[in-house]
Amino acid sequence: MSINPLPAGTTLGQSFEYGLDINTGTFGSPSWQEIRRMSGWAPTFPKVTQDAATYDDQGAPNEDVSGRGFAGAFTVQANRSQTTGLYLPEVEALVNASRRDREQAVVDVRFYHKPKTGAPHPTDAGRILSTVELSRQNTGNAEIDIFAISLAGKGSYTPIANPYAGVIGGAPIVSAVTPAGQAATKLVTISGSGFLGATAVKFGTTSATEFTVISEATIVATVPAGSAGPVNVTVVTPAGTSAAFSYTRGA
Q: What is the pTM of this model?
């Protein structure tokens, strides 16, 4: 039995490659706090249907999906401050919402694809207002304190652009700068990996005049002013700075 090969650059997704944030600000001016130490994220989007059958269906069922709800479940470790006794702020928000009513029982959350390496899925993300149910998962005599959380959407979720910059898994790597011999104001293509979220491209100590992150593996940059000859090119991301790559500038 033969197996069809996957396209180059394809990778198998991992179950932990999702992030979940809770808004500790207001809806109009959100302050997103990542929910740390969570596991088991399982969102669902249950359908709402309406009977659309007519005589043309000759007695067969015909239902239209008129809307989608939202539900989510996960677990989170109950980490506390030894100074104040309080949980982490995101856990405090979940605990408080689970014990209150009306608007105080509602949390504003967003979820998104968060890969270990490579580009995040641009639209696998959403925002939803949800009520919270919470229970202690472990109740034994010597177990980690973990909360089991269930979210129930108030209305449908809102698709959003993925907010994750994709900067995880170590410093970027520069493997090539082409074409050789480009002078100031000319474009070069920088190849390598880990470029998502890049904050600077430097030729020696001088930042590129402009640069565009095309993908996790490609940046197009404008060569800044400087003397002809060898220069070290580096890419800077929140995850670190690449090792220097030697490039020869033109006059």
A: 0.66
